[in-house]
Structure formats: structure tokens, C-alpha cells
From TrEMBL:
NCBIfam families: SOS_SulA_aeru (NF041583). This is Cell division inhibitor SulA. It comes from the Bacteria. It comes from Halopseudomonas sabulinigri.
């Protein structure tokens, strides 16, 4: 869904959410999201909250074909929260999601603005806890994984980083 702006630009619903999120000056603890209470004992098939990474090598189109079943499984989660994609490749659009049999209404795509720290944005979204999984396309350094791990634990969600490497 797109919304017209007075200067004739259009924004998608995810852009509007992102802009509203970045415009707020509230602390993370004051931002309210419905975070389900963690059960006393987690089911055996349910992975814990935290950070994971997948490394794919090949052409971007081929990597997205390998990634589609993972995203489909995550988007079909019974969790009531979003599957959030931060800075996915440009070819990963709502049209691609539909063609890969994914439900775009359960997926929020967030693109950082130029000059914005994508790792900090990812950590902020993880800490909010509005997503069951936040998928990112970051080039992590040695400090990125621990930061994402802590943020995911804080927001009771999962962080999945996709590392795409050209063949």
C-alpha cells in the first residue's frame, strides 16, 4: 500500500512505520508492543532467542531462491509478531515475496536511509520486541554478532543475518 505525500512522492507502509519509529524520541522501554510472555519451559522444537547467520554464495537471484523457503518458514510462524527484513537486496520486494508464496502482510521490510547505521537500526528493532525474527543483510565485524545477540535477548526475538557472497 502506498501513501501520497504533498510533494508527490509516495511512501510504502513500511517506510511510514520506519519514519515514525525513527521520529520518536521515546526510550525503548516506553514503546509498547505486545510481547508474549516467555513460557517457563520452552518447547523442544522452538529455538531460543538469539543470533544466527547464514552465508550464501552465488548469484543474487540464486541466493534468493535458496533463501525463500527459510523466509517462508519464518513468515508462517504462529508467533503474532512481525517477520522484519532490514535492508534486503533491492530485488527482494513485495512482488518477489508473493511470487515466492510468502505473505507480505506478515512481513515488514525496513530500509535504512543513507548515512544511517544499519547495525544500530537492527539492534533497536530487536530490542523493541515487535518482531519474532529480524532478518538483516549486514557485513558483520567482530563486535556485530554480540551486539545483535544481546539485542535479540532483550527483545525476546531472533536475529538472523544473511551474508551474500558473489560467486
Amino acid at each position: 500500500m502506498q501513501y501520497a505525500r504533498p510533494d508527490q512522492q509516495t511512501l510504502t507502509q513500511a517506510d511510514l512505520f520506519h519514519n515514525a519509529l525513527m521520529a520518536t524520541r521515546m526510550e525503548h522501554s516506553r514503546f509498547s508492543c505486545a510481547i508474549p510472555q516467555q513460557p517457563a519451559t520452552a518447547p523442544a522444537d522452538e529455538p531460543e532467542y538469539g543470533y544466527s547467520e547464514i552465508s550464501l554464495q552465488g548469484a543474487a537471484r540464486q541466493c534468493l531462491q535458496w533463501l525463500a523457503p527459510v523466509l517462508r518458514d519464518l513468515s508462517n510462524s504462529a508467533a503474532p509478531r512481525w517477520l522484519t527484513l532490514i535492508d534486503p537486496p533491492a530485488s527482494l520486494s513485495n512482488q518477489w515475496l508473493r511470487s515466492a508464496d510468502l505473505d507480505p502482510s506478515r512481513i515488514m521490510i525496513v530500509r535504512s536511509k543513507p548515512g544511517m547505521d544499519a547495525t544500530k537500526l537492527c539492534c533497536d528493532l530487536l530490542k523493541l520486541g515487535c518482531s519474532h525474527t529480524v532478518v538483516s543483510w549486514l557485513s558483520p565485524d567482530s563486535s556485530t554478532a554480540p551486539r545483535l545477540e544481546r539485542a535479540a535477548q532483550s527483545g525476546q526475538c531472533r536475529s538472523l543475518n544473511i551474508r551474500l557472497q558473489a560467486a
